[in-house]
Amino acid sequence: MLDYNLDIDEESYWHIQTPDNSARLFPFYVTECGYFSAGDKYYTKRDALNSFLFIVTVSGSGCMKWKDKHVTLNAGDAIVIDCSIYQEYATNPGEKWRFYFLHFNGMADGFKSSVYQELTYVKLRSLESVLSRIRTIDDLISQTSVRAYANQSHAVSGILTELIDSLNEQADNVLKDNKPEIRELAAYIHDHCKDDLHIDDFTEFIRLSKYHLIRLFKQQIGITPYKYLHKCRINLAQELLRRSDISVSEVAFAVGYDEPIALIQHFKYFVGVTPNEYRNGNMIL
């Protein structure tokens, strides 16, 4: 569905690009970009669009609804959503919402856990840095050279990286109880990942509640202690599969799993292929 009211003034603009096969060779490619100076009657309601949408507010404020969540976007705030999922965004009542936007597509999986899965809006560390990249895309949007597509892709990647850096800085500022013991626990898990470790061992090591430990560990290390344990085991498993000819079952037991199926499941999760598929493509003779 698509329902909208373009209450925008004359300074607004909107460019559409139809990417060719050359554009699609790069990690990201832009399909639309623009700038709206929108009155308080502006809104868009939409779903089933195969693209990601980036919005950054320059002044005024708007609101976004996505996955039944709502956020307000003030000056300096930026957001990215998957447009295949129903969304609504509009100028807040009595406001004038000035914002830049990009529709883009490409190899976006690496950013999902940080900025795509939830309705995460970010107060940018440097609004000008992001606007500079948007201007680069604006300047190149009418060009169809490989160089233009390469620079557009680079600009989109820079924008998304700036979002993640800003998000991490926000988390560091908000979370006042960072503990060096978290890094010590991560080192302990790394060194003892072949052992029979459980969450109770982690809480005993660091003397925190289970909930508090998981929250702090994920904030500082990026994943939960449980996932980190299995990631360390899978790293060891990759070394054994590449440098030895022992069976997958033997590899499983060597890295801390009681059953080969556990190794196969976690290996497929982290690496994307089974242990045998990995070995066939990576054996060192």
Overall helicity = 40-55%
Residue fraction in strands: 15-25%
String of helices and strands: EEEEEEEEEEHEHHHHHHHHH
Number of strands: 11
CATH C-level category of the largest domain: Mainly Beta
* Largest β-sheet summary: 6 strands, antiparallel
Gyration radius, in Å: 23 Å
Level-2 CATH architecture of the largest domain = Sandwich
At CATH level 3, the topology of the largest domain is Jelly Rolls
Assign the CATH superfamily of the largest domain: Regulatory protein AraC
Shape: elongated
Instruction: Please report the distance between the alpha carbons of the first and last residues.
Output: 56 Å
> What order do the strands of the largest sheet run in, or round the barrel if closed?
2-3-10-5-8-11
Helix count, DSSP H or I runs of 4 or more residues: 10
**Assembly annotation:** single chain
Secondary structure category:
alpha+beta
